[in-house]
């Protein structure tokens, strides 16, 4: 039945609703005058029911057309606040509902944005700085209050995330979530065969033991080498300090991955909106 109501349940509308509803159903004018799409019209809906129909929210979030969204709901692939939804009449508040499709969260709150930024050398990882180029210079004119996630020192280039979702930014930066970051470093010196093992076991620094999650040699020419390092620590200049401690000073450093988000071939100084798959993956990485 339309709206997901059970057969036999009273379809009478509250007093005073008949004329407006009848006009809206017959011509579409009533719904249009109220600022609603005619496809939202539900003759069985409770006049006091709030929210937006789930398939419309999914369509607006870029999941697919309303028809595709309805098929996803019917197949049991959509859940709201932890519960699988199978009927089409459900209404949700997109500002507060946690909606997942195939287990992946989608961003539905109005105005929430997520960006990947490719930071060049010489730019400070701050949204404002009175004397030096900073991240805020690249988002001037935007209305959102953006948070940067994943600081890079001024001499390091690569991937930084920007979002106005404060809880997401907090979790991504918090060490308890152990978000892995991948770096490529140009180093000077000969790479020992046991270096990967030594780095995984840990290197003593002035502020404690530092370990990497993964290490591999990508290329070497003479005493110059290109290596890839994966780490979930976030201490200041941690990669440079680790490599200095093993006698391999860093001459160039770029972050190529932050959690599930990759820099790819993104050009320096470019601000790129994350796609819906990336947004879902990054929420999942911190349990949201």
Quick overview of this protein structure:
The protein has 288 residues and is α+β, with helices and mostly antiparallel strands.
Q: Can you give a write-up of this model?
A:
With 288 residues, this protein is an alpha+beta fold. The chain folds into 4 domains: 1-49, no CATH class; 51-108, Roll (Structural Genomics Hypothetical 15.5 Kd Protein In mrcA-pckA Intergenic Region, Chain A); 114-176 and 261-285, Pseudouridine synthase I, catalytic domain, N-terminal subdomain (Alpha-Beta Plaits, 2-Layer Sandwich), CATH 3.30.70; 180-258, 2-Layer Sandwich (Alpha-Beta Plaits). Helix content is 22%, strand content 26%. It has 8 helices and 17 strands. The chain has helices at 18-27, 29-33, 54-60, 66-74, 166-173, 195-201, 238-245, 276-285; strands at residues 52-53, 78-80, 83-85, 91-92, 99-101, 104-105, 114-119, 147-149, 157-163, 181-188, 203-205, 208-210, 214-221, 224-231, 250-258, 261-262, 271-273. Helix 3 (54-60) crosses helix 4 (66-74). The longest helix is centred in the first third of the chain and has 10 residues, at 18-27. The protein is elongated.
Features:
288 residues; alpha+beta; Alpha-Beta Plaits; 9-stranded mixed beta sheet; 4-stranded antiparallel beta sheet; 8 helices; disordered N terminus
Q: What is the name of the CATH architecture of the largest domain?
A: 2-Layer Sandwich
Averaged pLDDT:
82
Shape: elongated
Fraction of helical residues = 10-25%
Text of the CATH class of the largest domain = Alpha Beta
The number of domains: 4
Described by strand count, sense and barrel closure, the largest sheet is: 9 strands, mixed
CATH homologous superfamily of the largest domain - what is it? Pseudouridine synthase I, catalytic domain, N-terminal subdomain
CATH topology of the largest domain: Alpha-Beta Plaits
Rg over CA atoms, rounded to whole Å, is 26 Å
Segments where pLDDT lies below 50 for 5+ residues?
A: 1-48
Number of helices: 8
């Amino acid at each position: 039945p339309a709206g997901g109501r059970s057969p036999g349940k009273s379809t009478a509308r509250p007093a005073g609703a008949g004329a407006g509803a009848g006009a809206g159903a017959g011509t579409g004018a009533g719904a249009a005058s109220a600022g609603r799409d005619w496809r939202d019209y539900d003759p069985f809906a409770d006049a006091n029911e709030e929210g937006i129909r789930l398939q419309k929210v999914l369509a607006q979030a870029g999941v697919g057309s309303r028809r595709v969204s309805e098929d996803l709901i019917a197949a049991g692939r959509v859940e709201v606040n932890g519960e699988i939804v199978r009927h089409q009449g459900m209404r949700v508040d997109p500002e507060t509902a946690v909606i997942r499709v195939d287990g992946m969260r989608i961003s539905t709150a109005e105005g929430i944005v997520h960006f990947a930024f490719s930071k060049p050398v010489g730019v400070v990882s701050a949204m404002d700085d009175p004397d030096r180029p900073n991240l805020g210079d690249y988002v001037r004119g935007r209305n959102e209050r953006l948070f940067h996630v994943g600081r890079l020192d001024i001499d390091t280039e690569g991937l930084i995330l920007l979002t106005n979702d404060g809880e997401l930014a907090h979790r991504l930066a918090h060490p308890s979530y152990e978000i892995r970051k991948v770096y490529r470093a140009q180093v000077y010196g000969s790479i020992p065969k046991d270096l990967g093992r030594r780095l995984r076991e840990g290197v003593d620094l002035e502020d404690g033991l530092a370990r990497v999650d993964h290490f591999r040699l990508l290329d070497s020419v003479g005493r110059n080498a290109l290596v890839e390092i994966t780490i979930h620590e976030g201490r200041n200049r941690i990669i440079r300090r680790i490599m200095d401690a093993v006698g391999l000073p860093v001459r160039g450093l770029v972050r190529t991955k932050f959690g599930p988000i990759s820099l790819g071939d993104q050009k320096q100084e470019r601000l790129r909106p994350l796609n819906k798959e990336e947004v879902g993956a990054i929420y999942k990485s911190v349990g949201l």
